[in-house]
Design brief:
Distance between the termini: 25 Å
Enzyme class: hydrolase
GO molecular function, one term: cellulase activity
Bound molecules: calcium ion
Number of domains: 1
Helix content: 40-55%
Largest sheet: 3 strands, antiparallel
Order of helices and strands: HHEEEEEHHEHEHHHHHHHEEHEEHHHHH
Shape: globular
Low-confidence stretches: 1-18, 63-165, 374-378
EC number: 3.2.1.4
Protein name: Endoglucanase
Strand order of the largest sheet: 5-6-7
Catalytic activity: Endohydrolysis of (1->4)-beta-D-glucosidic linkages in cellulose, lichenin and cereal beta-D-glucans
Oligomer: single chain
Radius of gyration: 24 Å
CATH class: Mainly Alpha
CATH topology: Glycosyltransferase
Amino acid sequence: MGVLVFGAVIVMAMVTRVASHDYGDALTKSILFFEGQRSGKLPSTQRMTWRKDSGLQDGFQIGKKKPTSVVSGQLVGASPSGRPQLGTSRTRSTVSVFQRLERKDPIEFNNCRGDTLVTDRGGVQFFSKKVERHQIACDFENDWSETQIRQPEFVRQVGEGLFYTLVDLVGGYYDAGDNVKFNFPMAFSTTMLAWSVLDFGNFMGPDLPHALEAIQWATDYFLKATSIPGFVFVQVGDPYGDHNCWERPEDMDTPRIPYAASKQFPGSEVSAEIAAALAASSMVFRSRNPAYSARLLKRATMVFEFADANRGSYNDTLGPWVCPFYCDFSGYEDELMWGAAWLYRATKEPKYWSYVEQNISDLEKNVAKHTARVGYGGGSFAEFGWDTKNAGINILVSKLLLSNSTSDAGPFIPNADKFVCSVLPESPTVSVSYSPGGLLFKPGGSNLQHTTALSFLLLAYARYLNQSNREIHCGNVVATPARLIQLARRQVDYILGTNPLNMSYMVGYGNKFPRKIHHRGSSLPSIDRYPARINCQGGTPYFQSNDPNPNQLTGAVVGGPDNGDSYSDSRADFVHSEPTTYINAPLVGLLAYFRSYPPL
Ligand SMILES: [Ca+2]
């Protein structure tokens, strides 16, 4: 009898294992993906070995180095002649929104040592008449940790917001299937990786060290991007030049223009998001590497102060260089609050709590104002992504409030509850949609970014609610923490293959997954296989090929199926077939939790 019961238990356990996904395998792969997106000098520990060093001159040289002794100079920051077109579609495009000035001849200037430097041709196509010779100094080791930020004399502005400098911007991540380093979504992805480790790091097992590496790969870069007082580098690479080529990152010869926010040309959203990433990451490293953690936190406070004191959107100061690529449609106020909320969590300093408390009432108003300009509206309670942080702010602050049982909770917990009620399919106030197969959908491209980000918030909030024995009422519908977790798991399972097509949307997970993802490095032969250079147009046949990508970008999660659960696996269909760091970053936390809590 005892043997029979034991046998039955084994059979049941086997059935459960077969029905469940291998979340541990998916977790490993979801983190491995970030190695495929690395820019810079790859370490000896690199596991995705078909990728090689790239962008090693970022910040030092605009384009391909000329075969002379002349060193290339730098162009940093730009104020476009035209206003950004906020009505532009949110999908990414290669259509220029303003007239560029073609300039083929080099521009000369002097560096601090008196050397004459010259830019490569084409590196400054948009300021042909405004450039003048000037002197720059060499003090780039200065750190924001100095008590007083002095006006930097070593980065001088000329013309329409044009700066020259030499600064190390090697490292960081390519955001998606191209080779531009967009710091705004990179910072959001970093914040979400850090939140994943803070809440779910205990469930990551042997993958935790890799998750920490993934975070540090970004924070090392952000320390460089904020190393000059009064400047925050927001992007490296001319997006038009980059998107017009289909090149491996290792072969890049498009203009690697660094763009910066400054006092005169603010970029509060990207600066505040970098501050959030640094603050959240400082908590991750607090016990593991106290000195590094302290450095991150100190920089976070300085960068936040810069973002708040010099308010403005990089949409307006960098215009067509950031829009329509990563245009901050929702305004910068949400990033300032998000940054302050993370700084409060990291420092416990009352001034950050006051900032959050005092500005929360304006947040919804501000977002409504900005979103009205671009034609998408509605409540912002269900908005969470690289553009809009509202739902994330409310959930993050609710954790602090629920654990401290503070008397004056403000609107945060009601707002967080509204978020849940806007996502739950059975809620009378649901504002997202679901495909027939059960996948969460929101308007815009790259849908799985919404699915993973909102599912992360559901899971995080469910655990905070559990700790305080709360449940949510959406009209007459009761939402328990268990229901929130169930919905989050349903979304993760869909991504991993529990869907009408029975296909995984994570490359390398399961047997059926996207083979022709929109990703330059993955779709071109690797350097190992084809060492000769493939130039800008040389990649076109690979882009147009019907063959599967030769290099597997393991762990990459693509934009996903359409709202009818169909997927065409087309390289050209970037809305559905392109992976991004901000799809994966929240998924890391989700997979870690489900790895430890498989379905009962
Ligand atoms: Ca925003």
